[in-house]
């Protein structure tokens, strides 16, 4: 069983050497017995997500998920196939999406974060960790529940071509908003404008003054900022917000790379413009998951939503794929194909 092992707790941005590949023996059988309920899965696709960086820190303070255990496989979302089971609800051949190990085969004992997938020829299996998985749901819950959008409003999305951002922009367009995205390369900007339907996009690496760049894109100001990055971009967005604007704080991926992140100077704008800024976790909205799936699958099948994936081949390339998230190497949702369907 090939595995990606987490070596030990880290500071700063993650490196490939924080993980190592190991081969260990495995019995391709689930333990049987009255109190087992375990089942063995073959992992097909693994998801690389920025939040996993938080699990590499011993002091990770989250009520719902603990830090990784040094010496054990990295854990993350995946799409897997059941190969042997002692659980009547999961039979060999069933497909599941949820938390699994970064390894070829995993023994699953907890099923709370797992859902069965009905194969559908029109939907790639890997979408169950992207468009239809946690990142897609984050976009849906964050935009519709946290941003209180109204048709005609001006929406700005950062890390806009990523797993979450690309769907936020499309949801905002479907809602009748004007949408601008920022991203870190001209290739991503092209994707935003020509494939993902954003009204405008800019490469923040080409801008010397982010406040001016946002002013250029939003002469009337921003009603909604969906913040995936924090840092300087948040500071610049604050100065461009309209009165009664909303900022959904989804993530602050820029902070992971810096030991001494630059502080935010413009928070007083919250007061002068009566802006609402709200952090959220997608896991607080899970009751909306069925509604999200109906909405996104229906729009996807009608061609009104598209999704861009960045697929790396092979488990041994998973550490590099994950590390690449923090320098913007991924173009679209970063996925690793571990085995063929
Ligand atoms: P992405 O697919 O967007 O990948 C990360 C992207 O972040 C990179 O491609 C890069 O894009 C950008 N980035 C990396 N480093 C920096 C930096 N130093 N400054 C600015 N941008 C940077 O990731 P996701 O869509 O999966 O996640 C987006 C955000 O959403 C993250 O902050 C994540 O933690 C958060 N999140 C929050 C959830 C919640 O429940 N609140 C759930 C899921 C995700 P570029 O080249 O454009 O800079």
TrEMBL record:
GO terms for molecular function: oxidoreductase activity, acting on the CH-CH group of donors, NAD or NADP as acceptor. Residues 58-336 form the Enoyl reductase (ER) domain. Coiled coil: none annotated. InterPro entries: ADH-like_C (IPR013149), ADH_N_2 (IPR041694), ER (IPR020843), GroES-like_sf (IPR011032), MDR_fam (IPR045010), NAD(P)-bd_dom_sf (IPR036291). The keyword Oxidoreductase applies. Keywords: Oxidoreductase. It comes from the Eukaryota. Pfam families: ADH_N_2, ADH_zinc_N. PANTHER family: PROSTAGLANDIN REDUCTASE (PTHR43205), ZINC-BINDING DEHYDROGENASE FAMILY PROTEIN (PTHR43205:SF35). This is Enoyl reductase (ER) domain-containing protein. It comes from Citrus sinensis (Sweet orange). The lineage of its organism: Eukaryota, Viridiplantae, Streptophyta, Embryophyta, Tracheophyta.
């Amino acid at each position: 069983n090939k595995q990606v092992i987490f070596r030990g707790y880290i500071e700063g941005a993650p490196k490939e050497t924080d993980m190592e590949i190991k081969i260990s023996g495995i019995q391709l059988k689930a333990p049987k017995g009255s109190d087992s309920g375990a089942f063995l899965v073959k992992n097909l696709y693994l998801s690389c997500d920025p939040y996993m960086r938080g699990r590499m820190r011993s002091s990770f303070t989250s009520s719902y998920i603990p830090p990784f255990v040094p010496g054990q496989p990295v854990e993350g979302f995946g799409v897997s196939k059941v190969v042997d089971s002692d659980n009547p609800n999961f039979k060999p051949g069933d497909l599941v999406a949820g938390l699994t190990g970064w390894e070829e085969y995993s023994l699953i004992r907890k099923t709370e974060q797992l859902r069965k997938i009905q194969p559908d020829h029109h939907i790639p299996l890997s979408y169950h960790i992207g468009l239809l998985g946690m990142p897609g749901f984050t976009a849906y819950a964050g935009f519709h529940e946290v941003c209180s959008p109204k048709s005609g409003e001006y929406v700005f999305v950062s890390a806009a071509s990523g797993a979450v951002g690309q769907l936020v922009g499309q949801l905002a367009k479907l809602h009748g908003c004007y949408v601008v995205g920022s991203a870190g390369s001209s290739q991503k900007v092209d994707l935003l404008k020509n494939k993902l339907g954003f009204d405008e996009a800019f490469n923040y690496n080409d801008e010397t003054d982010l406040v001016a760049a946002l002013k250029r894109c939003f002469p009337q100001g921003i009603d909604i900022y969906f913040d995936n990055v924090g840092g300087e971009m948040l500071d610049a967005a604050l100065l461009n917000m309209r009165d009664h604007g909303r900022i959904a704080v989804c993530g602050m991926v820029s902070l992971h790379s810096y030991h001494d992140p630059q502080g935010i100077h413009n928070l007083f704008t919250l007061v002068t413009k009566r802006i609402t800024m709200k952090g959220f976790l997608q896991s607080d909205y899970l009751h909306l998951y069925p509604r999200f799936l109906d909405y996104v699958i229906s729009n996807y099948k009608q061609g009104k939503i598209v999704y861009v994936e960045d697929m790396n081949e092979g488990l041994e390339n998973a550490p590099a794929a994950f590390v690449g998230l923090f320098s913007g190497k991924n173009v679209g949702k970063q996925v690793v194909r571990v085995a063929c369907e």
